[in-house]
Amino acid sequence: MDQQQLPAPGSGERTRVRRLPENAVTDRGTLHDILDAGLMAHVGIIDESGQPYVLPVAYARDGERLLFHGSTASRLFRSLAAGSRTCISVTLVDGLVLARSAFESSMNYRSVMVLGACVALEGDEKDAALRHISDHLLPGRWEDIRPPSPKEIAATLVLALALDESSVKVSTGGPDDADIDLDRPIWAGHLPIREMFGAPVPDVAGAAFPVPDYVERWTR
Ligand SMILES: Cc1cc2nc3c(=O)[nH]c(=O)nc-3n(C[C@H](O)[C@H](O)[C@H](O)COP(=O)(O)OP(=O)(O)OC[C@H]3O[C@@H](n4cnc5c(N)ncnc54)[C@H](O)[C@@H]3O)c2cc1C
């Protein structure tokens, strides 16, 4: 579906950001950028007893949907494959905000929430989705590694969730202190947080080979 035809993030009654609506972002480009920058999503389900569970999973964005993979033995994945409704969030923490009061101290972030029900992928679509997830998490790696065997594919559930009910909230910059606190004689501002890769560490057999060029190019 054309990106223009899809609802803007936060445009539904369930996804409209009410608390600090000035931090809501409604363009789909930002939705995509946040999802492309993340590696891990938190996926929520409510089980038969009514108990909510929120589990972290790897994911990739493929156009206007999110892709996940997991074991056919996973309760989370079995429930999602059966059509349980879910709420998925991806959060990038960009910094700590050091205000002059406890109340105004906070975080800078980019976060996405998606509501919906997943569909299980099969056949060629399932195979392509597995490659797509690998390309997002480990770009360039697929060509070097053994592809999944039919038995491994059969043991894996691959799910897709359409990005048609979403919201985006972004918080940036320094503290928003109340006027009565502005004269407090302390430092205030914000402390950016940056993610980075460390140096590659080979396993015993891997040490015989050079670090792949694509790994050298990965940055965070
Ligand atoms: C890293 C991080 C730390 C945070 N820490 C706190 C904290 O300590 N205390 C606190 O009160 N809040 C915190 N927030 C904000 C929090 O996520 C909620 O936005 C806030 O609590 C308001 O909740 P609400 O249910 O009243 O939102 P409402 O505005 O009523 O939510 C309505 C709809 O807006 C959308 N929405 C709300 N929040 C988000 C979001 N974060 N991302 C995407 N869509 C959203 C959803 O679609 C939701 O259904 C934090 C957010 C992040 C990302």
From TrEMBL:
Residues 1-23 are annotated as: Disordered. Gene3D superfamilies: Electron Transport, Fmn-binding Protein, Chain A. Signal peptide: none annotated. SUPFAM superfamilies: FMN-binding split barrel. InterPro entries: Pyridox_Oxase-rel, Split_barrel_FMN-bd. This is Unannotated protein. It comes from freshwater metagenome.
